Each structure stands twice: as C-alpha cells, then as structure tokens.
C-alpha cells in the first residue's frame, strides 16, 4: 500500500508540470487547448528517440521542451492568424501531432529500460551518496516494511516541479505575464492599451505546451517507455488537477494557485490509485474514474455553496421572525 501511494505521489509531481501548462492555457489565457494530448507525446517521443540514439538525456529533454513550445506556437498561429476557432485549432494540432509523433518514433512504442536516462542517473547518485539508505532506515523505523527502490527520484521531481512553479509565478508577475492575464480576461481592454494580443496568445500557448512536453519527456524516462497513446485524455487529467487544486486550496494569489495545481495533480493520482484498488474496478476504468473525479470537483463546490446560501437565508428568516415576534 505504501509503495502504491508513494508511486502515485512521485508520478503526480511529474504530472503537475503538465497541469501547470494546462493552467496557463485554460485559466490564464482562457483557451481550451487540446494540443496537450499531442504535445505530451511529442515531448516523450523526442526525448525517447534521442536517448535511444545516444544523446545525453538532459539535452534530449531540452529539445523536447523546444518542440512542445513550437507545437503550442503553431496552435496559436492557427487561431490568431488563421482565424480558426480556439477549440478547433487545438484539435487540428492534436491530430497533426499524432502522425508527427509516429514519424518521430518510427513505431508505436520505444522502450527505455536498458537506456541511461535522467532517472537512472538520479537513482545512481541517490544510492552512491547514501540517501536511499538513510530514507529506508527512517521509514523502517516508522514501521514500513515494503519500501521503494529509490527515494532520490521523488526529491528530483519535487525540485524540478517547484522550479517550474516559481518560473510560472515570476512570468505571470512580469509585464508580459500581466498582459497574458489581461488577454485571457478581456482582449478588447488590453488591445486598447496597444498590446498585441495575437503575439501574447501565441507566446502563452508556446510556454504552456513547453511545460506539457517537459512533463511528457520526464514521464517517459520515469516509466521507461514512450508510447503513441500515452497522451490520450491528458487534457482531462490536467483540468482535473487544476479544478481539484483550486477547489481544495483556493486561488487567492498566483503563487497559491500554482501550488494548488501541483497539490491537485498529486491528489488526483492518489485518488486514482486508491480507486483502482477497489475490487470491482479495473485498469480499463481509469478514464471513467477520471470523469467521475472531474464531475465531482465541478459539482461539489456548487452544491456546498447552495447549501450555505440556503442556511444563510434560513438564519436570516429566523432572525426576522424573532424581531417580528
């Protein structure tokens, strides 16, 4: 059980980078970008192909990020210059990326289990400095018997994800970031200040998909393979993470919101892991579980708000009756 929860936390931190990308497009730019399903695989495919070809995994990951940025920019161009509906722009790019990803990979699946990746380097370093031994001793003293093979990867995942979070926070507080937020809120208003909303949209979608591609590249190295179908439903997972995080942790500031998105991604993975341990649920029910989680996250806050409003009205009526009596 502990290994399952630990693994879900570990994976959730990596997926949180993708969720931050979805947050930028969905919440900041108010752009329903379905490119995510394709750019996630693009990041995984490019990283895997370059690693198999003998490139340094770090260089392969950086190139994957650039490819994701390019994919997002093309989606932005389709919408802004081609005057195509935002939803349709994302769908068209997602479909195009499916064929492009197949071209990049040359086949539907690329295994990385025998290759040197960032994760294998981190695992080796963690073992060499004795970090795994220290953590194993700590958890054993707490009564845990079945432990993960390495603890270094979760620390690496947390550091990378927090760096991306702080980068997003910094970006959204700059002049460009404020213009991006204004573009998502009210394009007509920001245009009145002579801002080029087309360029801002293209740039914002590029950054969003760069984050998504980075997540894909890291997940491929974490899981030990890149698969053409690994991006299916990724936009829903990203939205689930954003919605769950916002519902549980709030959106008072940008820093809190981005942290909430990370928390939402981790909670989502934990909920899915626990749900799959239920006897009558199978791995094939994953998409159904995701849909139920998203529906619950969307509906529950409204039900709670309605209940609070009814209680408030009831108290108000009671007080009025007391005054009248």
Characterise this structure:
With 325 residues, the chain is mainly alpha-helical. The protein has 2 domains: 2-277, ABC transporter involved in vitamin B12 uptake, BtuC; 287-325. It is 78% helix and 2% strand. The protein has 13 helices and 2 strands. It has helices at residues 2-28, 36-52, 57-80, 86-105, 118-128, 131-141, 152-173, 175-185, 187-191, 197-223, 234-249, 254-276, 286-324, and strands at residues 109-111, 225-227. Strands 1-2 form a two-stranded antiparallel ribbon.
Structure summarized in a few sentences:
By secondary structure, the chain is an all-alpha fold.
Topology:
Elements: H1 2-28, H2 36-52, H3 57-80, H4 86-105, E1 109-111, H5 118-128, H6 131-141, H7 152-173, H8 175-185, H9 187-191, H10 197-223, E2 225-227, H11 234-249, H12 254-276, H13 286-324
Antiparallel strand pairs: 1-2
Helix pairs in contact: 1-7, 1-10, 1-11, 1-12, 2-3, 2-4, 2-10, 3-4, 3-10, 7-8, 7-12, 8-10, 11-12, 11-13, 12-13
Class by helix and strand content? mainly alpha
Helix content: over 70%
Unreliable spans: none
Total number of helical segments?
Answer: 13
Task: Give the helices and strands as they follow along the chain.
Answer: HHHHEHHHHHHEHHH
Main sheet summary: 2 strands, antiparallel
Q: Which sequence of strands runs across the widest sheet?
A: 1-2
Strand share of the residues?
under 5%
Summarize model confidence as the mean pLDDT: 87
